[in-house]
Amino acid sequence: MNQTPYIASEDSALLRRALSEYSGLTCLEIGSGNAGALIQLSQSFATAVGTDLVRPTMMDWRKVGIDFVLADGASCLRSSTFDLVAFNPPYIVEAVGADAAIEGGEGLEVPLEILREALRVVKPDGKVVFLLNDEAELAKFRKVCSDSKFRLERLESRRVFFEELSVYVASANSASQG
Ligand SMILES: C[S@@+](CC[C@H](N)C(=O)[O-])C[C@H]1O[C@@H](n2cnc3c(N)ncnc32)[C@H](O)[C@@H]1O
After folding, report:
1. What is the DSSP string of 119-173?
2. Does residue 148 line the site of ligand 1, with CB under 6 A?
3. What angle do CA 54, 103, 26 make, to 5 degrees?
4. Which of 16, 28, 34, 53 has most ligand 1 atoms within 8 Å of its beta carbon, as the pocket-test mutant?
5. DSSP H or E stretch at residue 49
6. What is the rounded distance in angstroms from the CA atom of residue 67 to the CA atom of residue 76?
7. Count of H helices and E strands in the chain?
8. Cβ-count burial of 65 within 10 angstroms (0-12 exposed, 13-18 middle, 19+ buried)?
9. Which of 32, 36, 66, 158 has the fewest CB atoms in 10 Å of its CB?
């Protein structure tokens, strides 16, 4: 597996801009790469946690009191813990091979599994904010959300070179909140 952290790019910047609207007590970023978004989140959340398969090489996150864990998804974390869970997953439709930072699987199994994990660890009234490109079959992502009684909305989109990137938010179905 490639052990080099993902270099923040246009996709990272688009997600970070959307995340600037959120604040609260606890947040998690799954697949936090070099932790740029996490450092931003640590300004507006009392506790910020990141996970990734690869260790960050930039060390700025250590100065701002972030907790980083080498973990698969949110596997090491308790259910219903975070006000916000964010992720910019490997979203390219391509078999998973050498580069776990970009290859999402032929059916985007990797981001779908990260979404399931995010919905497990987010609080029932929390939000999951994430990025995909226009190759994603949104119906599959909506189904994962509705299985957890969340609904999916698109927040914003931007065309970058050959692809359209979109940021989505999953929030509790108001009908299911009783
Ligand atoms: C597109 S990069 C985004 C990195 C960073 N968050 C950003 O926006 O610049 C996807 C990240 O997800 C991580 N990743 C892939 N599969 C993962 C998994 N199962 N659990 C945790 N992290 C994973 C990769 O190592 C990579 O750092």
Report:
1. HHHEEEEEEEEEEEETTS-HHHHHHHHHHTTEEEEEEEEEEETTEEEEEEEEEE-
2. no
3. 50
4. 53
5. strand 45-52
6. 13
7. 4, 7
8. exposed
9. 158
Considering the entire predicted model, what is its pTM?
0.96
For 58-81, write each residue's pLDDT tens digit: 888 888 889 999 999 999 999 999
Q: Cα(81)–Cα(175) distance, rounded to whole angstroms? A: 22
Atom of ligand 1 nearest to the CA of 15: 8
Q: What amino acid is encoded at 82 in this protein?
A: F
Domains of the chain, CATH where assigned: 10-177 (3.40.50.150)
Q: pLDDT-based confidence at 176, cuts 50/70/90?
A: very low
Q: pLDDT tens for residues 8-17? A: 999 999 999 9
- Residues 50 and 32 sit within 8 Å (Cβ to Cβ): yes
- What digits encode the pLDDT tens for the residues 33-55? 999 999 999 999 999 999 999 99
Question: What DSSP designation does 6 have?
Answer: P
Please provide the size of the chain in residues. 178
- Both tokens of 30, joined, read 């799954």
